[in-house]
User: Fold this.
Amino acid sequence: MCKKTDPEGRKMISKSQHVVTILGVGPRGLSILERINAFAATRGTAISKIYLIDPSVPGCGVHMPEQPDHLLINTVASQVTIFPDDTCRNSGPVLPGPSLYDWSREQGYRWTEDGHIIRGEGRDIDQNEYLPRALLGKYLHWAFDKFTKSLSEHCEIVSIASDALELNEKNGGYLIELRNKQTIETDFVFLTTGHSENEYSAKELEMLDLVSQGQKKNPDLSYFNSAYPLARNLSTVRRDHVVAIEGFGLTAMDVISELTINRGGKFQQRNTSGDLVYEPSGNEPKLLVYSRDGFPLSARATNQKGATGQHQAVYFTMAKVKSLKEQYQKLDFEQQVLPLILIEMQLVYYRKLFVQVFKKPESEFSKFLNSNNIIEPDWASAALLFPESLRFNWQKMLNPTEGCKFENSTEFKNWLFDFISDDLNEARRGNETSPIKAACDVLRDTRDTLRACVDFGGLNEESHSHFLKIYSSILNRLAVGPPKERTAQVLALIDAGILQADFGTLPQVRVDVVAGKFQIYSTAFSVKNEAHSDFLIVSRIQPNVALADKSPLMKSMVELGTIRPFLNKSFCPGGIDIDPNFNVIDFQGRKNLSIWALGTIAEGPKYYTFILPRPGVNSTAINDAGKCVQGLLAQIELREGNQYRKAS
Ligand SMILES: Cc1cc2nc3c(=O)[nH]c(=O)nc-3n(C[C@H](O)[C@H](O)[C@H](O)COP(=O)(O)OP(=O)(O)OC[C@H]3O[C@@H](n4cnc5c(N)ncnc54)[C@H](O)[C@@H]3O)c2cc1C
Assistant:
């Protein structure tokens, strides 16, 4: 039965069946479901049936409810939601619901003393805390249940726990082959298959070959080109092993946590400022961490902005980007975008520094500039009013080791310890109080403006490539690092001799086939530092690259020409090609008005697709889903010929 109402609220019967399929019901697929539900409940849709296809617990995506509680979300509890609110513009009707924080409290979840979240006795959850991803999974699955129950009053809902292997056109619609041998027929498809697993690259195959030779000497020698799933990939690590972790970002933090906390180790408070001491369980391996930079992402500062607070940009604004695009069509990140970002960051930096140095309220900052004859944004002149050592130093932020010369690993280790400790101290001051953390938070708060520069090949080809190669990871390092508690844990593990991260910048790794070990060695010191490991875990999220994707569905869609990789001229940043309405573009360049793709599968034409919706900030994830679902409803209306017959 398809129910629809006309603008006067009369029930209509649609002329035909309209079957919709969501392939992949992680957070992005769930947002599509949420939007369809909101339209169905408020205005009605002519959708007769919805297939929800996902082999995992529906709703959760990578945030599986059964993972251990030590694996944390990287966003504070009050800043995660799956529901839209009145700030969401052009996404359709708003049916409000609880944020992750509100839901967790409503459901009676509390922290136990040993760091678990349970329903029952314990400490209250705080809105600024980082909750376990398992709890996020439960929230998302709860939302899935809520939407499907509500939608089942309007159309048939079929949820199938399997993955799609093939999608073929048939009679103007599609046939989808599932792994469980079922075939489903559908008119419309949402591709929200999320994070990908890629085929091994030539370099990785070479590594695997050397590893298999090394296994003759050391049968435990193991290489993983992805850390996930942690439980599987790290299960064979023993206490007498040495594990090399390539990368010092969020995934590395997961691996470290899995091999310490999950092995029974405990972090105890050393003092009231949050410094920690690690008590080993004796079951943890020795960890070697190395990365291109040699140091970790900056710690996420204590949130002082509540659930919805954001810096309101003055210079790096949507209006400015729009006028730049009118002037240049394609932008150059270094020439046109970065200068605006730096002006915006310095505005915030010097405002906060003014408070810190002169002990006056922020509201007097403009007066202070006027009285010194400084006209905004002449930050170079403003800087001279502050002690040299405290001035905004972008060069140092880009490259903290610039100008440092390390003779040996001990010198680097000492530098690293101070560098992390300083960063941690700033993080503890908070994202409103610390000038540097407030300035870096600008990057997070203006992410939509940056997206407007980058999305759909907004940067010219060379600049796009340079931006992704160089700047994107630097901006991530500065703005979206791990919770500060994780950084404190890294220091405690270095102190305890469990974690070694003294390889400096640009270290190298090779397989010592004769010894049956990985060899990690420094290249940045006069005296070489080297260490050996039994495991090598590449701790980075794999990028979505259509032509490298392991998934049979992606392979078959590429082969059939249903999708094609996105190209900015000849540069391929990853992701599949879509138009600004999220309709996929096929190999011949035709847009398909019945298939939409969103989320990480389209990370390339879109930028920064992998964050969860946030309340109160006109969430991009919700807007994108709203746009897709409105596109779907428009297509259905077209097929209905805009004619409705009165319900009899
Ligand atoms: C380990 C990890 C931690 C993260 N932590 C955070 C965080 O703290 N905060 C944050 O904002 N973001 C985080 N992210 C980013 C993450 O991208 C988003 O939170 C979110 O999960 C993206 O949702 P998605 O639906 O696009 O993708 P996914 O979460 O990957 O979901 C995709 C779904 O599609 C299904 N699927 C795949 N292929 C098929 C197929 N052929 N047929 C049917 N179903 C299929 C999968 O089973 C999965 O359920 C994290 C990512 C990872 C990998």
